[in-house]
């Protein structure tokens, strides 16, 4: 089954709000393992046009951006895309909402999504739910996700996510990409 690693909302301004010096190196390990295993890496960012016309003033999360000029918010350089990596821009919390993510995935024959990103209670939760509803097979790299509330992260990864996804660690997932003979499994 063809899979893709999704690296979601790991933009400089987002990373700055979630201080964890061990997070980016772990995420970089997952990205390196995916590339070594032939698994496509798809970056998902959140962004809006000048004035954020795609956001209602009633939207509690993004409504304050209405009327504001667009600001660059690049992917953190420690985990930046390489040439050929796909970058998808979304307009809401889920990686699917307001983006062409599903078109990109279906065009590449991707049926399994491996989720990472910031925040566990935001983009990861929303994307997992929507991906499951769209019949993707989902894996969540628990330590490849980050949330400001460790208890919320724990409850989601240990109690909520397992109902719709396989939950594992970066190290275990990376090890699973290579069989005992050393050939990639994709």
Number of domains: 1
Query: What is the averaged pLDDT score?
Result: 92
Shape: globular
Helix share of residues? 25-40%
* String of helices and strands: EHHEEHEHEHEH
CATH level 3 topology: Rossmann fold
Q: In the CATH hierarchy, what is the architecture at level 2?
A: 3-Layer(aba) Sandwich
What this model shows, in words?
It is built from six helices and six strands. Helix content is 31%, strand content 20%. It has 186 residues and is of the alpha/beta class. The protein has one domain (3-176): 3-Layer(aba) Sandwich (Rossmann fold). It is globular and about 50 Å long. The chain has a six-stranded parallel β-sheet with strand order 3-2-1-4-5-6, sandwiched between helices. The longest helix is centred in the first third of the chain and has 14 residues, at 23-36. Helix 2 runs parallel beside helix 6.
Features:
Isochorismatase-like_hydrls; 186 residues; alpha/beta; Rossmann fold; Isochorismatase-like_sf; hydrolase activity; single chain; 6 strands
List the helices and strands and how they pair.
Layout: E1 3-8, H1 12-16, H2 23-36, E2 41-46, E3 86-90, H3 101-107, E4 112-118, H4 120-133, E5 137-146, H5 150-160, E6 166-168, H6 170-176
Parallel strand pairs: 1-2, 1-4, 2-3, 4-5, 5-6
């Amino acid at each position: 089954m063809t899979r893709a690693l999704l690296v979601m909302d790991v933009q400089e301004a987002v990373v700055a709000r979630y201080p964890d010096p061990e997070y980016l190196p772990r995420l970089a390990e997952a990205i390196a393992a995916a590339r070594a295993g032939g698994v496509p890496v798809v970056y998902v960012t959140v962004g809006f046009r000048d004035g954020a016309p795609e956001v209602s003033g009633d939207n509690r999360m993004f409504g304050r951006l209405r009327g504001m000029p667009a600001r660059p918010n690049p992917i953190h350089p420690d985990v930046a895309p390489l040439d050929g990596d796909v970058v998808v821009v979304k307009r809401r919390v889920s990686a699917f909402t307001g983006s062409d993510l599903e078109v990109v995935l279906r065009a590449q024959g991707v049926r399994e999504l491996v989720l990472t990103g910031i925040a566990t209670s935001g983009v990861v939760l929303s994307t997992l739910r929507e991906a499951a509803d769209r019949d993707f097979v989902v894996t969540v790299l628990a330590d490849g996700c980050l949330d400001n509330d460790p208890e919320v992260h724990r409850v989601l990864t240990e109690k909520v996510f397992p109902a719709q996804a396989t939950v594992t660690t970066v190290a275990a997932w990376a090890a699973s990409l290579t069989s005992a003979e050393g050939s990639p499994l994709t």
